[in-house]
């Protein structure tokens, strides 16, 4: 059984989908802890599913590195097989990435390498592109530059707003994430082949 830690900053809609999937006895992975860098709304999902939470408030640390050290200490207590970033709005310090990668994955609301960074949906709209997408990647020390594990195209409609486009991307992201976690758990996807060390 693959043990998974999920890190969030906000509402945790991907987290909720993952908790629902892993709550099925036949699903080969379990979320064992949910962490956040602030008091996140998504903790409510963890509570509902009876999953423990950890909070490492970013603002209480002098540097990103110090915050990362505490986050790393907390994660080591749980020792998950896989860490999923699910709307974590902080860049992990290199020491944390190096400790977990390639067993550290993230979703992104664009068809990478197109439109990396924090505003993938807005950037896709602004570019006038006919399509964007969703991706699941291994996290490395770049901005959305890690190896791509799964991705799928999502068309951009003429009357799309950033919100409407993002709402159509989210279900694709969730489905890809759940599928990638399942494939890792059953051994169809071997993350060690993506090791960046």
From TrEMBL:
Its pathway, per UniProt, is: Purine metabolism; IMP biosynthesis via de novo pathway; N(2)-formyl-N(1)-(5-phospho-D-ribosyl)glycinamide from N(1)-(5-phospho-D-ribosyl)glycinamide (10-formyl THF route): step 1/1
- Which residues are recorded as binding N(1)-(5-phospho-beta-D-ribosyl)glycinamide? 12-14
What UniProt keywords are attached to this protein's entry? Purine biosynthesis, Transferase
Indicate what this protein is called per its UniProt record: Phosphoribosylglycinamide formyltransferase
Q: Which PANTHER family match?
A: PHOSPHORIBOSYLGLYCINAMIDE FORMYLTRANSFERASE
Q: Which family does it belong to?
A: Belongs to the GART family.
Sections of the chain in a coiled coil: none
Q: What is the lineage of its organism?
A: Bacteria, Bacillati, Actinomycetota, Actinomycetes, Micrococcales
* Gene Ontology biological-process entries: 'de novo' IMP biosynthetic process
First-tier enzyme category under EC: transferase
- Reactions that this protein is recorded to catalyse: N(1)-(5-phospho-beta-D-ribosyl)glycinamide + (6R)-10-formyltetrahydrofolate = N(2)-formyl-N(1)-(5-phospho-beta-D-ribosyl)glycinamide + (6S)-5,6,7,8-tetrahydrofolate + H(+)
> A Pfam family matched by this chain, by name?
Formyl_trans_N
The species this protein belongs to is Microbacterium saccharophilum
Q: Where is the Formyl transferase N-terminal domain?
A: 4-181
GO CC terms:
cytosol
Tell me one GO molecular function of this protein.
phosphoribosylglycinamide formyltransferase activity
């Amino acid at each position: 059984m693959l043990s998974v830690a999920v890190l969030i900053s906000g509402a945790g809609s991907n987290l909720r989908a993952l908790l629902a999937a892993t709550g099925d006895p036949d699903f080969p992975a379990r979320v064992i802890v949910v962490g956040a860098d602030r008091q996140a709304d998504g903790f409510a999902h963890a509570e509902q599913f009876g999953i423990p939470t950890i909070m490492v408030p970013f603002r209480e640390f002098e540097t990103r590195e110090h915050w990362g050290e505490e986050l790393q200490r907390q994660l080591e207590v749980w020792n998950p097989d896989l860490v999923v970033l699910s709307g974590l709005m902080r860049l992990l310090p290199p020491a944390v990435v190096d400790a977990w990668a390639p067993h550290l994955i993230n979703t992104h609301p664009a068809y990478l390498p197109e439109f990396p960074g924090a505003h993938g949906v807005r950037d896709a709209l602004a570019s006038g592109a006919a399509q964007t997408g969703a991706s699941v990647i291994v996290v490395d020390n770049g901005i959305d530059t890690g190896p791509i594990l799964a991705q799928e195209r999502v068309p951009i409609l003429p009357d799309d707003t950033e919100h409407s486009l993002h709402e159509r991307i989210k279900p694709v992201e969730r489905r890809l994430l759940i599928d990638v976690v399942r494939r890792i758990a059953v051994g169809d996807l071997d993350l060690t082949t993506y090791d960046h060390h």
